[in-house]
Amino acid sequence: MNKLTHFLRRTHNLLGLIFGAQVLLWVLSGLVFSLKPIGEVRGDHLRREVAVTTLPAELDGLAPPGTLLAGSGEPVSALRLKVWMGEPVWEAELTAGKALFDARTGAMLSPLTEENARRVAEAAWAGEGALTGITLVDPAPREAGRGEGRAMWRAEFNGKDKATFWIDPQTGDLAAVRTGWWRTYDLFWGLHIMDWEGRETFSSWWLKLFAFGALVLSLAGVWLVVDRLRKGRLLR
């Protein structure tokens, strides 16, 4: 055995001990990612398609914007008239974020009551199962998506399709749908990119180090296979 082959064999064995487990996790996570379409993982099939509703050309009896400005309690930077749950509402941009107002009475709808949050959840549900509980979680965990770190309504559905809906109490929007598959995917995503908490960082030094180590491990393995082929000892 020449010195180069001996060095590469020792390098291959050493790197296999150090980086082999992560390489196995990369392969395993890749397999997990391929098992379900990403839309199904995200629970898109559990969201009811919302029909696009346009406001009538003429609306009578709407509260004047001045009423909202006076009742908001803080500066309003923008107002938008839209349909929410079949009714016209004003969506206001406040210093602290968005808020909904009843377009007819001017009453502030945000944060949503439990009853309104339940209505949103049931109207958005397209799966097979029933709403079994709704809870205001403050602060919401990372799985709540853009609602992480603040109060969010958590709606639990059980049945054939088991899922969690996260509803924004300020805007009345369905912010995120979470399923068991999403949580499994999320776990393996963190292992895949080696960001075990945030699940967002692609360029950590851990990932770079292990990727480089895995590359050297693979190249050393290729060389050893070629060397054994050249010597006719591949199957010995």
Attribute tags:
6 helices, 236 residues, 7 strands, four-stranded antiparallel beta sheet, alpha+beta, 2 domains, three-stranded antiparallel beta sheet, single chain
Structure description:
By secondary structure, the chain is of the alpha+beta class. It has 2 domains: 3-39 and 185-230, no CATH class; 40-184, no CATH class. It is 40% helix and 21% strand. The protein is built from 6 helices and 7 strands, in the order αααβββαββββαα. The strands form 2 sheets. The protein has a 4-stranded antiparallel beta sheet with strand order 4-5-6-7. Strands 1-2-3 form a 3-stranded antiparallel beta sheet, covered by helices on one side. α1 (3-35) packs antiparallel against α5 (180-193) and α1 packs across α6. The radius of gyration is 27 Å and the shape is elongated. 20% of the residues are buried.
